[in-house]
Write a structure and sequence with these properties.
Blueprint (H helix, E strand, L loop, with lengths): L3 H14 L22 E6 L4 E5 L5 E2 L4 H13 L20 H5 L10 H14 L3 H13 L5 E2 L1 H10 L1 H12 L7 H12 L1 E3 L1 H12 L13 H14 L5 H7 L4 E3 L4 E6 L3 E6 L10 H14 L5
Antiparallel strand pairs: 1-2, 1-8, 3-5, 4-5, 6-7, 7-8
The chain binds glutamine.
The site of glutamine has 11 residues, from loops.
Length: about 300
């Protein structure tokens, strides 16, 4: 029997001693207010046993991690048609790069880079009557947690400084791959990214990706095939131009966000989330990646 608790405790101790904790994202001014010394980790196993260490109950901005949730909702609503508007290839580029979008005629490389997630946001805006309310309700439902909220200050902060996202949305519009108003789509996208959750809440939400599409209460949100596809996209595209490195070091499908969160999972075994707001030069949580590398090395559990 693996002693997850003692491994998480050791990981937390090592993180608190680490001198270089990375750099907090400040291109969204509201994110820069967070203390770089925060570290949290939470793991839920297939029997719904929970293990945690550090600030695992403190909420932070999940940012790009939300792209997996918007993709899941859109896939549930329109099915495979989604792949006519966004591809499933890794980009090898930073999350906010626009060059490939132009080269490939407005079809984003995958749904987990910004232009791809903006197309998914457009699909949700088209499909839903009250997009922000209904998306939040979807996430609360998966997590079985009504206390999950948007952080409106973070959303407004990004609205004021998200120039590259405005550029991406306008480029998509020029190629006819955005059906709704740029401002309306980005208002939804900035809110989606501003969802505030703790490591524990993230593992509750992502439990279904390790459990064949069924949430902790056994309700079905995605088919087995859809979960397979989303986990594959997380593995190949979840860490931008560091997806290869994450597969190499950690060996799990996962997703990061510039708020310093990472969620990762081993199908049928466990789901884990880390939070450490300092980022490495590629925009992924520095200590989060180290922590997950330790976890899969110590437990000898990875998809490989
Ligand atoms: N909202 C952020 C952006 O669009 C999300 C980026 C991220 O977490 N990598 O720039």
């Amino acid at each position: 029997m693996i002693d997850f608790q003692s491994i998480l405790t050791t990981i937390n101790e090592a993180a608190s001693k680490e001198k270089n904790k990375g750099k907090i994202a400040d291109y969204i001014p509201e994110l820069a207010k967070v203390d770089v010394n925060n570290f949290g980790i939470h793991l839920i196993d297939n029997k719904q046993q929970n293990y945690s260490a550090g600030n695992s109950d403190e909420r932070f901005s999940i940012q790009s991690i939300s792209k997996v949730l918007s993709l899941s909702m859109a896939l549930g609503l329109i099915g495979e048609k989604i792949w006519t508007r966004v591809d499933v290839e890794p980009s090898g580029d930073p999350f906010n790069h626009l060059s490939l979008l132009e080269l490939e005629n407005g079809i984003p490389r995958n749904p987990l880079i910004n232009p791809g997630a903006i197309v998914i946001a457009d699909i949700l805006v088209s499909q839903l009557e009250n997009p922000k309310e209904e998306f939040l309700a979807f996430v609360q439902d998966i997590a079985n947690d009504d206390s999950i909220r948007y952080d409106v200050d973070v959303a407004n902060s990004e609205k004021r400084t998200g120039f590259r996202n405005f550029a991406a949305a306008n480029l998509l519009k020029s190629y006819g791959n955005l059906k709704n108003d740029v401002d309306v789509v980005l208002d939804f996208y900035f809110h989606q990214c501003s969802l505030s959750m703790s490591c524990a809440q993230l593992t509750n939400t992502f439990f279904m990706f390790m459990n064949h599409g069924k949430c902790r209460r056994n309700n079905i949100f995605l088919t087995v095939t859809q979960v397979k596809r989303i986990n594959a996209i997380m593995l190949t595209c979840g860490f931008y131009d560091e997806a290869g490195e994450f597969a190499f070091e950690v060996g799990l499908p996962g997703k990061s966000g510039v708020g310093g969160g990472i969620v990762a999972l081993l199908p049928n075994k466990f789901c884990v989330a880390t939070w450490s707001p300092g980022l490495n030069p590629k925009g992924n949580s520095k200590l989060g990646m180290l922590a997950l590398e330790k976890l899969t090395t110590e437990t000898e559990l990875s998809i490989f």
